[in-house]
Amino acid sequence: MSKPKKLMVINGRRQLVPIVYHTRTETDKAYNQKRNRENKEYVSFYKTTAWRHTREQVLLRDYSTCVRCGLEGNIVDHIVPSEDDWEDRLNTDNLETLCQRCHNLKTRREWIKKNKGRERAMKIHVVVGYPASGKSTYVARHMTSHDLVYDYDLLTSSLDGSMLNVLNTNDSKANDLTIHKHNIDMNDYVQIIYEMLLRKIKAEKTFNNVWLIMTKPDERLTTLLSSNDVEWLMLDTSKEECISRLHRLHRDTTDSYKIMNDVDRLIDELDLEIKKVKTN
Ligand SMILES: [Zn+2]
Fold first, then answer.
1. Counting C-beta atoms within 10 Å of the first and last residue's C-beta, which end of the chain has fewer, N or C?
2. Confidence grade of residue 26 (pLDDT, cut at 50, 70, 90)
3. Is residue 15 in some structural domain?
4. Of 66, 83, 116, which one is at a domain's C-terminal end?
């Protein structure tokens, strides 16, 4: 019989390894020694006279003041990290004075940028349809653990604070009333977030799925995301069913038929190839 093995992810690949196998850790002595040898040039650079001289020059130029927050600073930092741009390591144009706090923030942002997810075969699902047709429920049932979900109603409720009521009360009727009573001034802010989000998902594909939940289809999406893998979905729930759900949720239905007709008209006008789906 062969020895027992276990499945491990090593360097991003799944491999069967002996059960006693350990991956290399940061504390592994041999590994650290090798890394230090490779980093020797990098470490010794900060001990050179050339660096000390340049550093003093930059501190003088910046009046030992953090260029980001204006407080006293004594860290001379590479704007483009020296590891990424070794040639420019002594160029004062690439150096700035920072305080400890701003330096920590910058380092953290750089770390996040470097360690951010790899490119994925990201699919964008635009879920449109009548109010209370079950859009959020559909997404909740189909999303994976590495998805981005933009839900207009939820984001608004989060920004206007009504989500706080939902999280802090057990009165379900109060929840339903607060969550859909939107503050008109909030719309601009939700819109800004939406537009920034679109710009970013257009530029990078780090999610498995992006879900955009909205009532009326956004015309701009057809051209803006044309290069991406976009799928248009609509919940196959009848108008009558939506109205009765809205009644059960104690929500105002004065404009509901108008909104639903707008949805139909827009889908027609945009000539969208739309897939009808059911919540279940
Ligand atoms: Zn600072």
1. N
2. very low
3. no
4. 116
